[in-house]
Amino acid sequence: MYYYEVIPIGQMIFNGFTYKSDKKLEIGQRVIIDLRGKFLSGLIYKEAESTEFSKIKEIAFPLDNKSLLNENHIKLMEKVSSKFMAPIGEVARLLFPPLSSDIYKLRIIPKSSLAPIQKPIFYKQFLKSFDNASKANKQLREYLDSNLMEIELYRKEITNKIDKFVSLKMDLKETWKFNVSKSAREVINYLSINGETLESDLYSQGVVKKGSTVLNTLRKKGIIELSESTTAEEENTEVSLNDEQRQAVEAIQLNPDKPHLLYGVTGSGKTEVFFEVARPILESGGKVLLLVPEISLTSELMNRLKKRFANYNAAFYHSGLTSSERVQTWYKAVNGELDLVIGTRSAIFIPMQDLKMIIIDEEHDQSYYQIENVSYDAIDTACFRKDLEDIQLILSSATPRVVDLHKAKTGTFYLEKIKTRYFTEMPEVQIVDMKKDEKYNWIFSKKVVENIEISLKKNKKVIVFTPTRGYANYVICSDCGYIFKCDECDVSLTFHKKERKLRCHYCGKESELPNFCPKCGGFKLQTRGFGTERVMTELAKLFPSQPLVRVDRTVIKTFKDLRNTFNFMKEPGKKIVVGTKMITKGLDIQDLDLVVILDADRYINFPDYNAQESTASLLMQVAGRSGRKEKGKVIIQSFQPENDIYKSLIDHNFDLIAENDLEQRKVYGYPPFVTLFLILVNNPSVDKAKAKANEIVEELGKIENQDDFEILGPVVPIISKLRGNYRYQIIIKSKKKNHEFLYSALKTHFRDIKIYVNPPTTLV
After folding, report:
1. Domain Helicase C-terminal, which positions (predicted)?
2. Residue 383 annotated as lining a ligand binding site
């Protein structure tokens, strides 16, 4: 008999449980266990040396024939759990694909005519037939003990369909001779813009529905070609690099021992640098993982990758895919069938076979830090993998995190800088002083309106960036001052005029705008502030015949919406694009002439330790969309034009902001000079939340030797109530290297709190 410590996957568990097996199993192998009457998937964590308990349960089934993890993946799980103070059971879940759609399922088989079921059903289906899982598992246990039923492991086979290349066989003008359906025309338009594409991409991006006959119809008409190999003439071609790019490539290849921070201005060709570095890795049989912050970036990168590495297998891994698609990608990556995986944050945990390089593009983006569920930093996790698995790591950005610039400065990272744009100059940046300069209306200055008109006359595109969506930031009663707020969250409701709805952008709750004030009964309701919808309305008045595009979470709800909008934006010709942060994510529009930034001061004044860095990064990324082919222009409207952030923007000098920010952080004690722990207490009762927060602070105060340890709070955060829970916040700043003492003190409170370690913002 063999004894193992098993971690229940996805459970808030800090230690494994001892189980036995009559078969030898491998560390990292998944199994099915019976835990408190529930059948759960577990991970063989380590061999148990002793058996102190008389009754030890047996492992029900092995899920995997062999371990899909190696020793380094187990160590990664331990390091992430320790660093981010996360239950190891929840961290274990991150290493595997979505459990709900895994290829392994438990199936209940009737063994007797007396059984309540006459044919096999899946375990989840059985659970749904009861009021709650506890009752279902208790009843199932009785059936199993009575030998009326048995449980077996069902494995769904993954079909390896050949992914064909799809390409247009004729010019776009010629296709109009054919009478084709709307969906067929979508395929034609997509191929004309993006060129040759894999069939799987057309499905994953919603261009074609699975099971549709559109592709076959177009093939029979001779409009498209389907082939098992690429027809592109320039696959695997060499790309001409400039001196700075070539130097960066050589430095990265010669020094694989530490992570490389590739710090290059927007449009400097950083992508070509890491493509060039990835080439010898792929040629020698190694695998590459490329992380991006947004789903919107995956398609563009995939198209570029196909042109450069047409003979290699590549796939997406992100939340825009169905669970089953993500499962298939995961197994292919783990089994070594994929050479390249492009994914968002969660892909950092895929235990890829023969992984030799991780590239993190736009590494400054805060979305690499997971706030919901188990919290972790994907960039720190990548650094752990680099050390554990001896792989190369490249972090790339035009505005790197100041903590990473500090690591480069102190020698933990190598630094490769690219100071010039590829093929063109940096855009001209102008600051409009909204206190002095002439205004066209209360949203736009006269200079902005004039410059938009000039760009449109040149048949060029304009981006207008505004921080928020909706029509107005809030609605107020001018009689009594009442502001409409969310019942579940302590935030004002945003007004969306088109639907006449008040919507909470935190919990999603919405309601109709009433005709009168619920407090005083007055009818003088006024909107304040502006978002994308209001900006669109005003621009439509100013430029009534010009095409307008809106890019925000209100109008773009699916991956297909995103793809359609981005494709429309890239079509040649004049357009005004109004958007929020979504338009900052590496969007490359060749004929973009002008970028306008409204309400730029909003982010600078956030009460957050990271406000200077994140604001400068955001504004520089927005500004960097301009003039990718020819020199462009950026106009920023501000009431604080003297701020250092705007000076650095004019000079395209992010170093200035980073240096000032690091000095301030050193003085006031913030990362990277301390480890910052943010503890958030949540409870539907405000009194219980306060009591729990005070209890935690009292316990933390008993910790010995607090010279390098500072406790702040508890305080009510800016958003005091969120999704029905009242919140209290505690901040700990620590210069200690080992935080086991803190983990021990907080362990008993984990079900009442959320811990964030070095979060990119304290406004969670």
Report:
1. 512-668
2. no
